[in-house]
Structures are given as structure tokens and as C-alpha cells.
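Changelog note: in this version the structure field was regenerated for every chain. One regenerated record is shown below for reference.
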Amino acid sequence: MTSMVSHLIAEVLALEVRLYACQARLAVSTDSEALHDLRTTVRRLRSLLRPLRGIRGVDELEDAAREVGRLTTPLRDQQVLCAQLHDNGWHALARPREAFLDDACPRVAGSPQLKRLFERLGKFPEQLREQQRAGLVHGLRRSIEKVMDKQWRKLRDAIADPEHDRHHLRLLIKRVRYAAEVYPDLSHQPKGMSKRLKDAQGALGDWHDHLQWLALADQHADLAPCVALWQTCISRAESKGESALQRLTQACFPE
């Protein structure tokens, strides 16, 4: 138990350091990857916390991380869109959106959401130690394993459903995959599953991006020149997504 609590605290402290570095990079707009790195760090934190629900301090910290995610999701979506526009030569469409990001991303560094996350992060290690000393975190390793096993069963059930929803599957795949990255020793996935999950997530993510871009084109007239290409690409993305899911299904249910 001591080693598990120590592992959790060490992981939280490492993530805190990474978040402060991302905050500094965002504040001065030193690179375009600062926002992405902030989001991946917050995502790892949320994956770490999800199996710990019920422990004092977890709900508040998880909620703070979720709010940072909500704040930054539209900005990251805009970044991905700008990259897509540049890749296809629509530079004039990308530039005003990049100008917006140049103003918006640094504001994330001083946002109330990020400040609240740092406040919660700073308190959590001592909260966890206090509960350990009080004997309130017995069976922590087993409880984490049970949560991860439940996530895995939900994904298998969803994959086995012939009427599966791609968006729901994408979220389940992300949850299972990221949890296994944070708790590799507690994951009971079959050997080689990590690559299948990553491939399926990537293919479904490409489909989801095109779906979002087409929805944006309905709201922003300047994106009209992009629609024909995106409609073609989303059909290809759907096909690739189904192929990736088929490979994942075969890995989940070997004959």
C-alpha cells in the first residue's frame, strides 16, 4: 500500500512540474505545442485520478482538471483546423484563426481554471498521506484494478455491439488506453492490445475531426471551399475507422 501511495504522489508531483512548464510556455507563446502538451498532461492526470474516486480530494482535483479541459478543447480544435487548412493550401483561411489563437492561448496561463487546478494539485499529496496514516486507503491497488477491469469490459461490450456508436467507442478506447499508460502494471489487457487501441483511436479521431470541420463549415461561410474535400475525406476516414475497429475486435475476441 505504501508503495502505491508513494507512486501516486510521485506521479502527481511530476505532472505538477510539467503543468507549470506548460503554463510558462503558454504565457510567452514560445511554441505552438504548449497547449497540446498542457492538454496531454491534464489528460494523464485525469486518467490517474479516475480509479481513485471516493478518496478525499480526488473529486475536487478531478473537477478542476475537467474544467481546464473544457477551457482548452475549443482552442486545440482550432489549432488542428489551422493545421488542416495550411496542409491543403488554404493559408488565407488559417491566418485569422491563428491570430485569434495567438491572443487566446496565453490567457489560458493566467486563467482561473488553471489557477484552481494548481491549488488542488498542491494540496493533494498531503491529503493522500493523511488518509494513508488514518488507514483510509486500504486495498487501493485492488480497487484500481477493479475500475480498470470494468472499463475494459465496457469497451468489449461496446465493440461487440453491431450498432456501436463511433463517437462513444472513441471515448471508451481513449479511457482504456490512457488508464493502461498510467497504470501499466495493473492493466489486464491482452498482449499487443496497446497498438490496436492506438490505431483505432487515431482512425476514429480522424473521422471525428472531419465531422467537426463539416459542422463548422455550416456556421462559417468562409470554409465553403473546403467542404467538397472534407466530404470525400470523411468517407475514407469512416472506412479506415471501421477497418481499425475490426482489427481491434479480432484482438478482443480471438477465435
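Spot check on this record: The mean pLDDT is 92. Residues 144-255 form one domain.
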